[in-house]
Amino acid sequence: MQSIDTPEPTPEIPGTTSSTQETGTMRIEAERRDDGVVLARVRGEVDLLSAPDLRTWLQEELAAPARLVLDLDGVDFLGSAGLSVLAELVEKSGGGRLNWAIVAENRVVLRPLEATGLAEQMPLHADVDSAVKAVRP
User: Fold this and answer.
1) Where are the annotated segments for Disordered (predicted)?
2) Between 107-116 and 80-93, two packed helices, what is the crossing angle to 10 degrees?
């Protein structure tokens, strides 16, 4: 008998609302916290097929000035289309409309960020707690 792996649910923090969006090989689990921080955990592959969905989600979520923590530690593959979405976030953050941080300790994510020079342009953190503290007012 074959077992089906199901992801462990993300523990909810009191005073938050959460939502999940799943598209093919990528999943976005978002928590909108009372302190105004949006914590988005991205899982799976961010590639040519899924990157447009991430871009759309970010555009909808960040329509107004925002505080965002993008946790990429669950990403298994980060392709050039995903890097393009992250480069757009770097550009958007320049106008002060976005206070954000990325959680990335995963080599699959860090290596392409470092190779392209994006790592030097974005606020990288080793864990969610330090990223949330960095964007909190």
Assistant:
1) 1-30
2) 70
Residues sharing a CB contact under 8 Å with residue 20, sequence separation 6 or more, in sequence order: 27, 28, 29, 30
- The residue type at 51: A
Q: Is 8 part of any domain? A: no
pTM confidence score = 0.83
Q: How many domains does the chain have?
A: 1
Q: Looking at the predicted structure, is the pLDDT value of residue 64 above 50?
A: yes
In a domain, 120, yes or no: yes
Query: Tens of pLDDT along 14-62?
Result: 455 777 877 789 999 999 988 889 999 999 999 999 999 999 999 988 8
Q: Which domain holds residue 105?
A: 17-135
Here the CATH number for the domain that contains residue 49 is 3.30.750.24
